[in-house]
Amino acid sequence: MSVSAIAARAGFVRGRIELRQAFSGAELIGQLLWPLLTLVAIFLVRDVQIGDGYTLDTFILPGALGMFVALGMLLVVQQLAADREDGSVLRAKITPNGIPAYLVGKLVQISATVLAYVTIVLVPGLFFVDGLALGRPGSWLTFAWVVLLGLVATQSIGAVLGSLVSSSRGAGYLSLPVLALIAISGIFAPITALPAWLAGIAQVFPVCWLGLGMRSALLPDSAVVVEIGGSWRPVETAVVLGGWAIAGLISAPVVLGRMARKESGSRVAARRERALQRLG
Description:
Layout: H1 3-22, H2 27-44, E1 49-51, E2 54-55, H3 56-70, H4 72-86, H5 88-93, H6 98-128, H7 139-162, H8 168-183, H9 196-202, H10 206-218, H11 234-261, H12 265-279
Antiparallel strand pairs: 1-2
Helix pairs in contact: 1-6, 2-3, 2-6, 3-6, 3-10, 4-7, 4-8, 6-7, 7-10, 7-11, 10-11
């Protein structure tokens, strides 16, 4: 078995264990809280008319699904910072193929978590959200490849960003610009409402195309008139999301490897000491 295959197998095992821990006991309540609250919010606006026969929930549902996929980026940043603080990254460093397996494990665990969120919101939403068009030919296929590319693109970027911070506090600071990026990226509505210069910036990043891809999969063709150029731009969506996914998969192991080489027992101890001082 090749080295990469061994690392992938170890990563899947690691990810499965972490996923089981994340959805067990008291942790399960926290995992279910946000998707359930999101589902309730969508249900409460199901009768709010926004013109052309659409209700607000019809547009919020694709945006909410895209948002949960994009938030995988933040989950990677936060968990990587926590793992550096408690020494998990250091332990991975001294294990054969440990860092590649660590990265695969994070992608597996967080992807499964995000897919659980998406399922909790989407499945009940199909029963009360009017105006969706998932019965169109190719809708489910579009939904699948947008989610897949979105998961890889956002989480590999999160791994690169997470390697830049070494504490949970640093992850919190880094979360602010990431959340700002999500806010301006048209995840809940077409970016045609934004100033042209801001829309141009948003289109450089994958979150914008994740939102567009979700709308193209879930909404009827008549809704495309509010998008840029009156088009769902599927080719551009695939190119941008795929490009970010490839770039992230190439750069994340390199950046994480460099970060891991700098890890040491003294650094982990210093981080723990600073964390205890903050708690004190």
